[in-house]
Every structure is written in structure tokens, then in C-alpha cells.
């Protein structure tokens, strides 16, 4: 069903370009509290048993608690301000910004892991293997539970999208805020697995060098995941969308106008205003005196991911 200006305005007021994923918000909030509780437990245990390994893991967990807390805050802020008219295209990018910030936090975690691993590689220290193994195993279980919670939230969110597919067409999307929280949990789980393997090698075979070596390997994995997340969220924040397939869909609409050859697309800008929602501004040069912006918007309306279009038409004799 083609959209008119009134339809687009009503769609914007109803949806405000947010993920509208309550399951993701609930799951992220639950994971945040689990992470904070685990962090406090490890810090208290490390202080009580005088174990630097346990203390270090507790403080490492604090960075994840901060990042996941940021994700939960982003959902709450996007929901709270979604009706605020000062946000021209809604509050969806609050969640994307949180994902971007979370990726930067991950890079900080990777840098800290590299520093600590190199320090232990060149200046070996005695490792309390029983306590460290117990902490790594406990951390792995916690992170697997958190990953399960976030994975279920993601599947519920996608189910919500598909249930409304007849209204939104292509408006399925990837929740970058939820993905950022999920990446934090998965990276922590991966480093726990590496830590368990390294500690086992050191405890049973005396390979103490495995601990800092696997720390460097884990830092590399964290850095790679954070780089990918930075690229995905940065692309949205910088409106880098002109290579998206929706751009070719818009060009195809112009090429298929009646009286082909009389109208030329002279300027086009496309940017994302929601997970799978796009706005565009285009200028046309035409010989067709009957061509109107409404006719163009009607043609663009067959692509339901295009939720807002600004059209400027110049007749050749005006130029």
C-alpha cells in the first residue's frame, strides 16, 4: 500500500524508529544484575582469600557490568523519549550509540588484557591454581547463563518483527545494542574457556607460560569482535548507507517512471532512521510537466523499508 505524507507522519508517531523489543530490555537488565552480583562476589572472595587472580577477574567483570548496564540504560532512554518531538526520527540511534560505546569499552578490555598478559609473560608470578580454576569455571557458567538469556531475548525480538511483517515488510533488523551486550558475554565466556585450558596446563604440566599466552590470544579475539561491532554501529551513526540495496531500489523506481528518458535523478541522499527503516531526499530534473512529488512517493511506497521521502522536482525550462 503506497504511503502518503500523512501515512508517513502517522507511522513515525506510532513507531518512533525504536527496536520495540521488551524481551531484549528485560534480558539485558537481568544480565546486568547477574554480572554485578558476580563481580561483587569475586572482589569480596579475592580480598578474603588474598587471591590476586580472583580480584583481577572481579575487576575485569566490572567493565562488562558497565557496558551491559549501558545497553540496559539505552533501551530505557529510547523508550522514555520515543514520543519526544525534538528527536526528528525517533530515539533508535540511542541504542546504536550505546552499542558503539560498548564496543569501545571492549577495546579497553582487550588493551588491559594485553598489558596484563605481557607483564606476566616477562615477569612470571605465582598462580593460585585451585582458586583461579574455580573462578574461571564459575565465570564460564555465569556467562553461559547470560548468553542464554540474551539469546532468548534476541529470538523473541525477531519473532515480534515477523508477527508484524504484513505491516512493515522489510522492517526486520539486527538489534545492535543487544548484539553489543551479547558480544561482551560471549567474549568473557571465550576468555574463561581459554583461562581454564591454560590453568590446567600450568597446574598439571607446569606450563606457566600458557596463562599469559592465552591472555594475548583472548585479547586478540576481543579486539576482532569489537572492531566488527564498531564498524556496524559506526556505519549507522555516520549515515553510510549509499551502498545499501535500498539505494538501487530508489534508482530503479525513477528509471521505471512513465515516459522514460524525460526524468533524471540529479541528487540522492539515503539514511537509516530505524533498524530496517530508511529515509531519502532526492532531486529530479524532468521534461514531464505532470510529474509530482506525490507521484514519486507513491511509487517509492512499494518498498516498505522507505518510510519517509523528500522529493524536489525541477522542470528543464526552469533550469
Overview of the structural elements:
- With 319 residues, the protein is mainly alpha-helical.
- It folds into two domains: 16-237, Alpha-lytic protease prodomain-like (Up-down Bundle), CATH 1.20.1510; 245-318, Cation efflux protein, cytoplasmic domain (Alpha-Beta Plaits, 2-Layer Sandwich), CATH 3.30.70.
- It has ten helices and three strands, in the order H-H-H-H-H-H-H-H-H-E-E-H-E.
- Helix 5 (129-163) runs antiparallel to helix 7.
- The radius of gyration is 25 Å and the shape is elongated.
Strand percent estimate: 5-15%
Structural class: mainly alpha
Which stretches are low in confidence, meaning pLDDT under 50 for 5 or more residues running? 1-17, 159-172
- Rg is 25 Å
- Helical content stands at 55-70%
| Largest sheet features | 3 strands, mixed
User: In total, how many domains does the architecture comprise?
Assistant: 2
Overall mean confidence score, pLDDT = 79
Task: Give the class-level CATH name of the largest domain.
Answer: Mainly Alpha
Order of helices and strands: HHHHHHHHHEEHE
What is the spatial order of strands in the main beta sheet?
1-2-3
The count of helical stretches stands at: 10
CATH topology of the largest domain: Alpha-lytic protease prodomain-like
Question: At the fourth CATH level, what is the homologous superfamily of the largest domain?
Answer: Cation efflux protein transmembrane domain
Under the CATH scheme, which architecture of the largest domain would be assigned? Up-down Bundle
